[in-house]
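Tip: read the tokens left to right.
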């Protein structure tokens, strides 16, 4: 058995995993710094809906990321209950899109 043939796929997997971990640390920092986590969690409703419930609601919407980007930017009311989400107009459009994309990547 040629061991070099086995080493290459192994390295690719390790590198891909490292890149993913880095991504999620960055997005966690953004969630924390933007105050999202004081109202949201991935699995539990706090003030706002659980992100898993958001994914379930929008899973068949082809423009989910666009819709959520707008909701996060401009705030949202009346879709989930009586509480409203304030606007986050100081976030850059890259950050808004990254947040919306991350929310939709959570497993329902
Ligand atoms: C003050 C509490 C609060 C903060 C801070 C907050 N949210 Fe929300 N969020 C809510 C509430 C309440 C709703 C439900 C609004 C509604 O019923 O339309 C909501 C809804 C959402 C939705 C679903 C929107 C939709 O169109 O269905 C997403 C996605 C979301 N929030 C992401 C975020 C992100 C990302 C942040 C941080 C940038 C954030 N929220 C910060 C309270 C908050």
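Filled-in amino acids:
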């Amino acid at each position: 058995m040629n061991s070099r043939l086995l080493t290459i796929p192994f390295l690719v997997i390790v590198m891909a995993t490292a890149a993913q971990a880095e991504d999620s640390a960055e997005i966690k920092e953004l969630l924390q710094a933007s105050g999202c986590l004081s109202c949201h969690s991935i699995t539990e409703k706090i003030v706002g809906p659980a992100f898993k419930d958001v994914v379930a609601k929008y899973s068949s919407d082809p423009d989910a990321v666009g819709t959520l980007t707008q909701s996060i930017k401009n705030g949202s009311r009346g879709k989930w209950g009586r509480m409203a989400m304030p606007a986050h107009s100081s976030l850059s459009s890259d950050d808004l899109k990254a947040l919306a994309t991350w929310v939709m990547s959570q497993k329902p």
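Helices lie at 3-33, 36-39, 51-58, 64-74, 93-104. Residues 3-33 form the longest helix (31 residues).
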